[in-house]
């Protein structure tokens, strides 16, 4: 890939769009990018990576120029495809999001062929992917290939041991095979160890669960279930006794209640009989009372109507007289009202006209006020303009004086450039001497540290050797224990056969116990069933007897004297059959139904028990036969002895399993510790050797540094300037810097003052024009004010002629008020007349109506008296007062009758209920205490039943949990084996990665290739004189012009170091690009030129020019003047000027 054109705008210090033509820039194969520090040289590289990958090496997103709201990059490049080049263009635009960060607003990737442009992608993600595919390099690899860190390779060339390895990791990005890989393996080791510990802990949680424990629990459950059946039977019997006793106690208590109720009813029986007689008189009085009420009501109405007739007659007379007086007064008032009303209306019209005139005056006065305000405002503005004019003239005079002073300061602050260069050389020399002195101090301190490290490492080595002997002894001891453990191995078949015999023998014993219980239960149920059958047959006969008796009663009810009996044929019936109590018959039928149900349940239980007995008996016989087939040597005289033998075998097997699991782990842990100790010993011995080597190297370096200090002092004395030390030079540089700053500041202030003077002159011209304009406007305002005043005076005289001294609005309000009062007075008098007329009409109609009602009542009164007298004559009453005395309301009469009926019904019901309950009691008796004893017995048995069921449920759940636990332990054992295997693998990896051996292995292979490639390039650019080789993992230079002599890299001159490290950088770039499809045809060098003298620069330039033969274009980024003078093609970068312009670029070709 080679660049063609780059356009930059708004990026970092670039503001206006700048174009770089790389076709011209790379024409001679080598070019330089020159400019002072901070000018924007590195922004050229940022623009290329930003255009291609959308990011820059420094990783920041704050790259938009602060004086711009967007950044634009256009990059045109070519990629070789066979013998031809494909041309691509990528454009990106970034906008500021308001927080100083950049967001992509537009991106396009295009291809160019024969002048035609085609858009390939227009989204950030797809453009980034396409660029990586076209170039064949990721952002990271592109950055390392394009910008070669020359200074780092010079340093890398001279480093040894650990320091070189660490730098090698950084340059070749090998952290993922070193520290990162170790951390990943360590994390995995911790995770596997934690998982293994977790699995082993989970196995330990289950303890000693086994099939034997499950069998013991099953036996206990069988025993508990047998006991449960017995308790259930006892509980049922207790419940039946309690229910029978409780029902009897309830019946006794119920009978007592009925007896008490009948006594209470006997106490009120006499009062009920009296009410039965009185209620008849009350009902007759209730029938007569409406006739008496009708007579009394008619009498009262006649009296009231007569009184009201007299009152209405008087009121009508008074009202009629009043109406005549009011009518006469109203007619006189109406004539006077018409005259006054017409006069007020005429005056109102004139005053309204004057109101309009008055409003015109007010409007004119407001306009005059506005004119006065405007005149005053303009007058004040004119004064301000006059004052401002004077100030501007004064400011222009002051700026002229300021410009003269600043010109003089600029002239006094100028310093010779040659003098500044000499000062800088001396400053750098003193600075280098200080650096070397500091380095010497550091080297001396490091040697002290190496001595201390060697002493500490020797002590640690002694401790580790003792630890190694101890670990070897412990490992031997564990191996002996493993051999001894193998002797305790017990066959699984022996344990399984013995366990099977124990289980079957225990099951036979349990079955014998169960058969005994079932046999007893079967006999109890057989007896119970027989008793129930006898009771059921007895009840059945009794019910049939009662039913037959009741049939005789039904026939007797329909028999009549003289008719023949359908049963005996007799015509006489001296003693008929009596009715049987239906409640007793119903109770007997219910009891029979209960007994039938109990019999069915007893029979069902008997069948179930009999079936269980036969089934268990068969199982027992089968197990007896199976035990006979087991080898006699496993059968002991008792079950306890067999179980003891089994437990002993299991303990031996558990001990064997525990040892077979734990001893290899302990051996492995100790072996790992031994391996760690051996590695630590090797590492410490290596560290001691390395520390001795580093100490010797530092001593050699101290000698070289002292020689370099003498050279630098010679450079200082050659400049013939009177500076005694570094501080004098620093002060002089600071003084020069101050002068330059003063000059720059004065130039900036002069420019500002000139701008101010120009601005003040323009403002003065504008103010003068405004003064003339304001004077014209003031004259016009005065003229308009005088015209308005004349019109106001004429209108004021017109209003006075009509309204006098009053305002039209006030006078109009008075007139309207007078009209309203007059109209209200007329309306009030008219309303009064109408009201009296209506009242007179109403009284007249009322007088006629009342007179008619009075006549009707006088006719009805004798008739109603006659009807009431007739009703009393037909009853047992003598007078109206006697009827009123016995009168009660319908509700009261119904209530008394209801009470009588209720008494009769209750008395009969309690009597029947008492007879029914007494028949159920049948002479029996029970106390409350006896019922409580039965209840307590029932509850105790019920609680005992629940406790047994709960115990069974707990044990069954334990069996379920233990079965699940056995499966879980088997699963965990499998997981444990897998994790132990994985743990072994991880531990082996840790050993491999320990001490960064793997990184060293990869680095050695990488270094071998890069050294070989760098040697080819070094030989080419030095015309075959030098080649680079590896010897004992250290670099050596072979001088082919001196018979192939080997030289240590520390003996190389500055130029030789530069060429060698440059070859290494090119080799790295080639290695990065090897696996990709579009090799780069250009790169930049941005370090390592500051210390080259003129002779070395010649050598470097000659070497760089040879690269052009390999179709490589090299760009050098530097501020070294000697390189700038010798560079055939230059890109000059001029720094940005704040508030004036951004960074500028200019192409120069020699």
UniProtKB/TrEMBL annotation:
Entry keyword annotation includes Coiled coil: yes
Pfam families noted in UniProt: AAA_23 (PF13476), SbcC_Walker_B (PF13558)
Gene3D superfamilies, per database record: P-loop containing nucleotide triphosphate hydrolases
InterPro entries: P-loop_NTPase, Rad50/SbcC_AAA
Domain Rad50/SbcC-type AAA: 6-229
MF terms in GO: ATP hydrolysis activity
Coiled coil listed as a keyword: yes
Keywords annotated in UniProt: Coiled coil
Any GO BP: double-strand break repair
Annotated coiled-coil segments of the chain: 207-275, 368-402, 454-549, 585-659, 729-784, 836-874, 931-989
Subunit structure: Heterodimer of SbcC and SbcD.
Family per record: Belongs to the SMC family. SbcC subfamily.
Protein name in UniProt: Nuclease SbcCD subunit C
Organism from which the protein derives: Candidatus Fimicola merdigallinarum
Lineage of the organism: Bacteria, Bacillati, Bacillota, Clostridia, Lachnospirales
